[in-house]
Amino acid sequence: NQIQNFQAVPVATMAAHLITRITDEAARRRSSNVEGDVVVLVRSDGTFKPFPMDFHNDGASTSEMAAEVAAQLDKALSAGLPLTYADEHMGVGWLPGLAEKLRAVVTARGLKLAREAMLLGLPKAEGVTGEPWVVLAEQIRRAPDGDYLFVTHPCLDTGESAGMMRPDKAPGLTAAERELDRRLLTHPDVKAALSDRGATLLRYKDVL
């Protein structure tokens, strides 16, 4: 279903992160694409375990993870999706030995890993307090010239997004935080700061 949805998106490039997932914190869970045995990656109902630490604690095989990613990429590429790079959902590449295997899978399909961009986050705006858009706007204004990575998860706080969960947060809190991310990115203060600095929004393909 996800592939069918993305086939209708009129873009020239697409991130494999959209579909290459071996963890899933959403209530609407996803099942494995591998033909065969990936039992350490999934729960009894065949859907993925929600967090990378689950794999770590259960001694999951990084070879199984790489096989799952390869199956997802092959399915997406065969459907004609214009993938150009792969990103790791929830930073799963920290699992010992996985990053190297992911790099091999991705490279074999003519893609790159987003982690190889080695981008820094915006420097802190020391002494600035207040609403998050005030702080972010000042970070943008103070940052030296360069390329930066700002990770955020904007969405609407709806019944669907309320199904997202984190092990350390009460139900519904993640959706509320991501609603705040949406407000942050669309706030006039942030837009003004980007305009004042002449900032340009980049895709990973521009820096890999």
Order of helices and strands: HEHHEHEHHH
Structural class: mainly alpha
Distance between the termini: 29 Å
pLDDT under 50 segments (min length 5)?
none
Our count of helices gives 7
Biggest beta sheet summary: 3 strands, parallel
Give helix % range. 25-40%
**What is the averaged pLDDT score?**
81
Principal-axes shape call: globular
**Rounded to an integer, what's the Rg over CA atoms?**
19 Å
Which range does the strand content fall in? under 5%
Query: Which strand order do you get reading across the main beta sheet?
Result: 1-2-3
Oligomer state equals single chain
How many E-type strands?
Answer: 3
List keywords for this structure.
single chain; 208 residues; mainly alpha; three-stranded parallel sheet; 7 helices
Task: Describe the protein.
This protein is mainly alpha-helical and 208 residues long. It contains seven helices and three strands, in the order H-E-H-H-E-H-E-H-H-H. Strands 1-2-3 form a three-stranded parallel β-sheet, with helices on one face. The longest helix is centred in the middle third of the chain and has 17 residues. The two termini are 29 Å apart. The model has no long low-confidence stretch (mean pLDDT 81).
